[in-house]
Specification:
One of its GO terms (biological process) is gamma-aminobutyric acid signaling pathway. This protein has three helices and seven strands, in the order αααβββββββ. By secondary structure, the chain is of the alpha+beta class. A three-stranded antiparallel sheet has the order 3-4-5, with no helix packed on it. Helix 2 crosses helix 3. The longest helix has 24 residues. It is extended and about 60 Å long. The N and C termini lie far apart (54 Å).
Length: 166
């Protein structure tokens, strides 16, 4: 149900952008198009964390209005609330690690001939890199190759092959 609603909203957004003269079909999106869902979900994550924090502070006779940059108790309550926040947002599952980083797949792209090409994905939870072997290097050959021997959850590390001279 949620995916259908997201796709319906995206379709309406794309139609509105076409009407405003943007070449959506040619994959020429307005600035911020891809980042907008992330920003929307970030605002919701903060709002939900503040809501959890307000409930906890109310039990102690406090509120967010008591927050100051030197009030460690309230800062810790906000941090704890953010780390326990999890919901299905417009950009996918929104959850955070104990360090406060968003837990999500990171898509790796390269701009080739004015189009973004997906090169792979990095899964922060599994510490796993999925590489699609689509990268292109400028010039007359590969400057470096990605070691294919690293598997099983270890990050792949680039290794130099030979110096590149044009």
């Amino acid at each position: 149900m949620r995916i259908i609603i997201i796709q319906t909203n995206r379709s309406r957004l794309n139609e509105a952008l076409r009407g405003a003269g943007h070449d959506i079909d040619g994959e020429r999106f307005p600035e911020g198009y891809q980042e907008a869902p992330l920003a929307y979900d970030a605002v919701w994550a903060v709002a939900l964390a503040f809501n959890k924090t307000m409930e906890k502070l109310a039990k102690d006779g406090l509120s967010l209005r008591n927050f100051t940059y030197t009030n460690k108790k309230i800062a810790d309550d906000i941090y704890e609330a953010i780390n326990s926040t999890s919901f299905l947002g417009v950009s996918g599952l929104v959850a955070f690690s104990s360090q406060g980083d968003r837990i999500a797949l990171t898509q790796i792209e390269q701009l080739v001939d004015n189009h973004y090409v997906k090169l792979g994905y990095y899964d922060t939870q599994a510490d796993n890199l999925t590489w699609l072997d689509r990268e292109r290097w400028a010039g007359s050959g590969d400057r470096q190759k990605v070691s294919r021997s690293a598997r099983g959850g270890r990050a792949l590390k680039p290794r130099p092959v030979r110096p590149f001279v044009e």
